[in-house]
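Pinned message: reference record for Thioredoxin-like 1-1 chloroplastic
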Amino acid sequence: MAAAQAISKGSVVSPCGNRAAPGFLARRRGAVAARMAPSAARIGGFWRKNAFPGGRLTLRTRRSRAASPTQMNMNLALGKSMRWWEKGLQPNMREIESAQDLVDALTNAGDRLVVVDFFSPGCGGCRAFHPKICQFAEQNPDVLFLQVNYEEHKSMCHSLHVHVLPLFRFYRGAQGRLCSFSCTNATIKKFRDALAKHKPDRCSLGPTRGLEESELLALAANKDLQFTYAKQEPELIPRGDAPGEVVAPEPAKLPAAPKPLVRLGSEERSGWSRQEDEMHMRLS
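Predicted structure (tokens):
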């Protein structure tokens, strides 16, 4: 280190005690610098030790190892285990894939009671209530449970006016939607009461209704969905006197309202006026 400082000052003393010549000094500087170069660097006129003793730093790109089939299967199993809404599913439970799938499922259910469950994977209340839904489905195999993932079908849920989760809607046959409500484990009695009220078998007079017509039109108007619906016109009835002539069905006539009862004295009479009473007295 002393030799290096001496070199930096410009003079070096030879082993014999004499001051070295300029040519020798230059050669001496080069030799010292060559020896110190791998492990030192000159900073501000002084030689500083390098942080790397070897004097050389090699940067190499780390090669990524291809995942083995066993590791890939473990990753897939882990990702699948995180899908809590697929745990404990019963044969009468299934997830809706599209708007058309929802409409077809409600239409094909006939007189069977259908419960539509709107949920979100990030909803804590939905996740906590899911085991209860599976228990209800197991206890009621004749009821169809449909699951709608809000995160995957946001546009469809907006058209159906779904603004709170979890949300449950009950449908049956020609009656269409029976009720719509939201509940959690704290208000599970609401779900039990609705299931007990609408579960008994009933025969519907007419075709299965499913979604409301306004909801079907909203789904058809949604550009994000591949769903088409044409508004149904009233059915035309052929007239007997003209072969090719058809007319729309006439609206049902309401029965005439009964005359209000007017209390006269201690008797109840059917709306006679005073003039009718006087005329009746004269004739008698």
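Pinned by admin. Summary line: The first strand starts at residue 40 and ends at 43.
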